Fold this protein.
Amino acid sequence: MTAATLADALPPRMDGADAVRLFTRPSMGNLFGLLAPKFVNVRPQGAPAPPMPFAERLWMPAYALCFNVTIAGRGNRDIWVSVCAWSGSFSLFECLDLLQPLETTEEFFPAGITPETAHAMGRQSFLTYVLRRRGQFNKPVVESVSETRLYHAPYWVLYTRRRAGLDLRVIDGYSGATCGPKLKRGILDALIACRKAQPANS
């Protein structure tokens, strides 16, 4: 893959060795190491995929949304949230100042949903988040979306073979956190969609 510049990206804080350590460490999910792969190849930037199991870093798009919210008795304030542009995964976003241009030869994906869809999903997810934490008391109300920024975030993906086929495990390449099934499904959807869009002889 030729080098490309991502206009806004979270800086990666893990390299391939870090990712392999996290993928292979003993945990309940791998029966405390019994099911963990003994060796994991790491795909270098721009290189063909090595034999499985292997790990590679991908760049997933997300929308950073600035919600202008009203809180009874406290007035207005801005709250930034993030919505994955494929899975719709939601989180509060505190990394706006860290976004920067980044040149990479690793695979990155375009947005799979529109900003308008992200706004609607973000509003609904924010409401769910607030209700879980506050119930109906002093509930913040989203008045508007004052700013929308598309950015890319790094994820390490481990590919392994299972009897039922291919299995993916995903780690956030910025925080090091293990990602849940919703984000994993979004990455799989992005991979499938981009493979289908490629010319047959590519």
About this structure: The first strand starts at residue 4 and ends at 9. Strands lie at 4-9, 41-42, 54-71, 75-84, 90-92, 100-104, 141-162, 165-172. The CA atoms of residues 131 and 197 lie 40 Å apart. The helical segments are 16-24, 115-134, 181-197.
